[in-house]
Each structure stands twice: as C-alpha cells, then as structure tokens.
Amino acid sequence: MPWENTITGTELASHGYVVVTVDHTYDAFSEFPDGRLTVPVDGMSFTPWDSSDDMRFVLDRVEELAAGRNPDAQRRPLPAGLGAALDLRRIGMFGWSKGATATALVMNTDRRVRCGLSFDGPMESAPPVTDLDRPFMLMTADFTRTAEPSVAQFWSSLRGWRLNVHAEGAAHGAYCDRQ
C-alpha cells in the first residue's frame, strides 16, 4: 500500500523510475472515481491472490497509458510525455508481507514483470510459486528461510538470479514506513 512504502517509492522516483502504487479495495482506504470510499474491513478474507489480480489489472492500465490511451474513468487528457516515460520492458515489482507473496504470484503468471523484491513476505500460496526464472530478492526479518517453510520452499524454486538479505533483529515492519 502506498502509505506503507513512501520511503521506497520516493527513493525509486528520485532515481528516475516511474512508481505506480496500488490500494487494494477493502484492504486499504480507497477512493473510486465516483467518490465512493472504502475502508479496511477486519476479518475479511483478502489473499495474495486477490492482490495479484489487482496488480495485473493495474499492469493492464499501465500498458494503456504507455500506448497513449487514458484508462481514467473521466478520460482526462494525459500529461505530456507520460506514455513515452513508461518502459514496459523494465517493470519491476515489490511488496511487503502478503504483498511480497502477491509480487511472486504475479511474476509466476505475468512475464511483463521482469524482477521482484519481497519485503519480509511469508510466501505462502496454494499452489506455490514454482520455477520463477527472473531476478528475485528477499529481504527478510521474521519470515526467514529457517523460520518459515514456505519461504524456504519459495527460495528453492527460484531459477533466476536471487539474493536473500536478512536484517538480524529486524521486525516484520522494518522494511516499510512503520519502522
């Protein structure tokens, strides 16, 4: 969610990357084009699969923007040069916690995403992500390969470049704005 990763988004943007964030309906505070607001709902089942569906929807909208079309509900004019600034051959994705798992799920089914980063994701999914052949980095705190079997299984299924950075003594929220 954008309000949990402003540090990461700001850092990426400061190096010239285009940053797109996703608010997942009922898992975040969201506003629709018609003005409707949604708030997080406790106890609602919202899985990494739900997040990955949202992320693929957003990737489709980014493709429309890159082609010069505006997916905006009000069809407002696009800012000059926006489409040209989007290089669809260089899409990376990251997520924190279940968003990290969703990142891996998207990469497993969508070749548009060229690399991924997990900020302490549990990497639990059924079916599990397998044979991911693109670069993926794990930054672990609570969900380490030794403490969480699903993370170990995910790690062993990575077929591309991979790196695991573990911050000794870090808490689950250490890689987001909450820290």
Any overview of this molecule?
The protein is α/β, with parallel strands linked by helices and 179 residues long. It has one domain: Alpha/Beta hydrolase fold, catalytic domain (Rossmann fold). The protein is built from 5 helices and 6 strands. It has a 4-stranded parallel beta sheet with strand order 3-4-5-6, with helices on one face. A two-stranded antiparallel sheet has the order 1-2. Helix 4 links the parallel strand 3 and strand 4. Helix 2 packs across helix 4. It is globular, with a radius of gyration of 17 Å. The mean pLDDT is 90.
Could you give a quick summary of the protein structure above?
The protein has five helices and six strands.
Keywords:
5 helices; 179 residues; Rossmann fold; alpha/beta; two-stranded antiparallel sheet; 15% strand
Shape: globular
How many extended strands?
A: 6
User: CATH fold name, please?
Assistant: Rossmann fold
CATH superfamily: Alpha/Beta hydrolase fold, catalytic domain
Strand percentage lies at 15-25%
The top-level CATH class is Alpha Beta
Topology:
Elements: H1 6-14, E1 30-31, E2 37-38, H2 48-66, H3 82-85, E3 91-96, H4 98-109, E4 113-119, E5 136-140, H5 149-157, E6 162-166
Helix pairs in contact: 2-4
